[in-house]
């Protein structure tokens, strides 16, 4: 069954702790993205990666880090430097084919709560 | 600056009534516009893209370049249409034509979303 898998679905963390959210895709997509979804604020881009071993900061990268060591995987670490980490995090991917206009495929999301 | 505006946070209609979710954009180039939908407990997914000019689940959206709008419409709303709807604009972020034509370096600009509630 092809798709994007995010884990865990729910995560609780104490202040001061780092936490890593997993995102795996078996769609053979080149590009992967991390978004943060907050009520009333839509989707805000944290980081994205167009290709393995390369990634770029999005609009709200501060307090987050990523890696892209494999095409299938794009984990997101929420560090203790992130001032307001409680949120719903969405991972997405897409192919980078010639003429492709940008549909994104999303995971089911991970809800992080900082206690 | 590029921007996507969805003026309504919440839209409530009765079943069988027409529904229109508004989306306005500001972009100096030729826009590529999308509507995404997020049903309760489901993942965000593409509903429509303007280049395909299709009708999905009874929804249509026409790009109006004069009014810079891409409103989503359905003549008769159903309860199962209740969801969060996002309008998005795709634009290239790279300066190189080669990258743009290859589909690389495209960025989606999102509206804040409209929550549609269809009441029985």
Shape of chain B: globular
Task: Note the gap between the termini of chain A.
Answer: 35 Å
Q: Ranges of chain B with pLDDT <50 over ≥5 residues? A: 95-104
Poorly predicted sequence stretches spanning 5 or more consecutive residues of chain A: none
Helix fraction bin of chain A: under 10%
Number of strands of chain A: 11
- Binned, the helix content of chain B reads under 10%
How many DSSP E strands of chain B?
A: 11
Largest interface: A-B, 24 and 25 residues
Q: Mind describing the biggest β-sheet of chain A? A: 7 strands, mixed
Name the descriptors.
heterodimer; A: 115 residues; 4-stranded antiparallel beta sheet; 11 strands; globular; B: 120 residues; mainly beta; 3-stranded antiparallel beta sheet; 1 helix
Describe the protein's architecture and organization.
The complex is a heterodimer of chains A (115) and B (120). Chain A has 115 residues and is an all-beta fold. Chain A contains no helices and eleven strands. Chain A has strands spanning 4-7, 10-13, 19-25, 31-38, 42-51, 54-57, 64-66, 76-78, 87-94, 105-106, 110-114. In chain A, the strands form two sheets. In chain A, strands 2, 4, 5, 6, 9, 10 and 11 form a seven-stranded mixed beta sheet that branches. In chain A, strands 1-3-8-7 form a four-stranded antiparallel beta sheet, with no helix packed on it. Chain A is globular, with a radius of gyration of 14 Å. Chain A starts with a strand and ends with a strand. Chain B is mostly beta strands and 120 residues long. Chain B contains one helix and eleven strands, in the order βββββββββαββ. In chain B, the strands form three sheets. In chain B, strands 2, 5, 6, 9, 10 and 11 form a six-stranded mixed beta sheet that branches. In chain B, a hairpin with a 6-residue loop joins strand 5 and strand 6 (45-49). Chain B is globular. The termini of chain B are far apart. Residues 95-104 of chain B have low confidence and may be disordered. The chains are: A mainly beta (115), B mainly beta (120). The interface between A and B is medium-sized, with 24 and 25 residues.
């Amino acid at each position: 069954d092809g798709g994007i898998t995010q884990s865990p679905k729910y995560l609780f963390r104490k202040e001061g702790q780092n936490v890593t959210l997993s995102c795996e895709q078996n769609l053979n997509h080149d590009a992967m993205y991390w978004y943060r979804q907050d009520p009333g604020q839509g989707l805000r881009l944290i980081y994205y990666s167009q290709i393995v071993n390369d990634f770029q900061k999005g609009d709200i990268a501060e307090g987050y880090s990523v890696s892209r060591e494999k095409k299938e995987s794009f984990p997101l670490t929420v560090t203790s430097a992130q001032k307001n980490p409680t949120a719903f995090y969405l991972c997405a991917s897409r192919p980078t084919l010639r003429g492709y206009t940008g549909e994104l495929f999303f995971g089911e999301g991970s809800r992080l709560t900082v206690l | 600056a590029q921007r996507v505006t969805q003026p309504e946070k919440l839209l409530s209609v009765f079943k069988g009534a027409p529904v229109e979710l508004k989306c306005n954009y500001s972009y100096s180039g030729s826009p590529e516009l999308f509507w995404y939908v997020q049903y309760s407990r489901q993942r965000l997914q593409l509903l429509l893209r303007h280049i395909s000019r299709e009708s999905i689940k009874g929804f249509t959206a026409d790009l109006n370049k004069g009014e810079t709008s891409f409103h989503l419409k359905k003549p008769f709303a159903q309860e199962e249409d209740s969801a969060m709807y996002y309008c998005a604009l795709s634009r290239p972020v790279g300066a190189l034509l080669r990258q743009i034509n290859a589909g690389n370096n495209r960025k989606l600009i999102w509206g804040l979303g409209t929550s549609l509630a269809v009441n029985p």
